[in-house]
Structures are given as C-alpha cells and as structure tokens.
Amino acid sequence: MAALSKEQGSLLNWIGQGNSIAVCIELCPDLGKVIRGKRYNQAHEEHFQRRTLFKLKALGFIKEEIHYITGMRYLICTISQRGLERLEHAVTRSNRESHHA
Which among 36, 72, 90, 91 is least buried, having the fewest CB atoms inside 10 angstroms? Predict the structure, then answer.
C-alpha cells in the first residue's frame, strides 16, 4: 500500500470524519474555488495544497459528486470505500504497533 505524506494522511482522516471538499465548477468568478467544510454554510476556504487532494483522488481514496448549491455547480469530494479501508488499515496497524511496544 502506498505511503501517504503527513498532509495527505491528515486530509484523508479529516474527510473520513464526515467532512467534504467542494470545488466550484460553474463558469463564474468562483470557478475553481475550493472550500472545505462539514456544512457549506460553515465552510472555509482551503488550507491544504491542492496537489494533496489530487493525490488522494489518484489513489482512489475520494469520490466525487456534482451538487447544486444556491444555483451553482460544485464538485463535492467525500471519502470513498477504498479511503475508508485505508483509514481502517492505518488504525489496525497503529494498534498492533502500540501493543508490541
């Protein structure tokens, strides 16, 4: 299984807690704007590198759906089944290592 950087692991864990990332895909001044948040009315602009999101997508750890929010199209990124399995594997490995220490 591919090793994740600290930032990739942190973002995957955050998404795995029921959070999501929204990317505006509407042809408007906000095109490409990235927002992360559990609820869109409580969202804030990104505080992670976009390449981190690209890597998680490339590894199949996130899934995407198009949603309309206030009439604007957004691509919503949430954790995929493969991402959940990766988190479970990391927890199992961590528990095993702590018991052997």
Answer: 91
pLDDT digits (tens, 9 = 90+) for 38-82: 644 455 555 788 899 999 999 999 999 999 988 999 999 999 999
Amino acid 101 reads: A
Question: What sign has the CA pseudo-torsion 86, 32, 34, 64?
Answer: negative
Q: Token pair for residue 47?
A: 């505080």
Tokens 């479970």, residue located: 88
Sign of CA dihedral 76, 79, 81, 83: positive
Going by pLDDT thresholds of 50, 70 and 90, the confidence category of residue 94 is confident
